[in-house]
Amino acid sequence: MLKPLSPKEVYEDQLQMQRKWAKEKEQESQVTNKSVHGGSSAVDTKSLMIARSGDVKQAVNDHEIMIIIIYKGMLLNQELIQEIPPRARVVLEEFEDVFPEEAPKGLPPIRGIEHQIDFVPRATIPNKAAYRTNPEETKELQRHIDELMEKGHVRESMSPCAVPVILVPKKDHTWRMCVDCRAVNQITIKYRHPTSIRLYV
Fold it and tell me: Of 82, 124, 136, 154, which has the highest C-beta tally within 10 A?
């Protein structure tokens, strides 16, 4: 059994923790000031790197595990590709298929695990009518649905549960199709593990 601390010991422990936090905060501020005021002009013209070249060389020599993150915007310019280190270029080429420009067509293969959304017993299944839209929005919605059907990401369903979809404008003046699942969320049994509650009509 652990012996409880006395009030005096608790107070001293809190003071010690506060001094430790203040010291760590002061060290962080000193490192930040050095990186801001002591940097060279070359760092200002290029992207800000967390690790210096000396740190990377030391990590390579010590055979340490490194995580290399390169901003994808650099790859949009052909001139900047030459500045990417050869080792980083090898990693990018090796894992080129991890982030394809387009998602693969069709649904993922069945893996023997069936997931379902459980509703509250005796709850009324929502069967909402579609929101009113103008002809332009109707065409845009149909285009989104046709595109998802063609890619195999959605399929026709005869389920009595139906929820409406809405179009939300994006910053680039295009539209994003969103599913209004509020009625489904209200009757869904909330489990401790995450469940997919997105339903497409």
Answer: 154
Q: Give the range of the structural domain holding residue 136, as residue numbers without chain letter.
A: 115-201
Is 51 part of a structural domain of the chain? no
pTM above 0.85, yes or no: no
Q: Provide the b/e sequence for 136-158 (b: ≥16 CB within 10 Å).
A: eeeebbeebeeeeeeeeebeeee
Q: Say how many domains are in the chain.
A: 1
Q: What is the CATH number of the domain that holds 151?
A: 3.10.10.10
Query: 179 and 199 in contact (C-beta within 8 Å)?
Result: yes
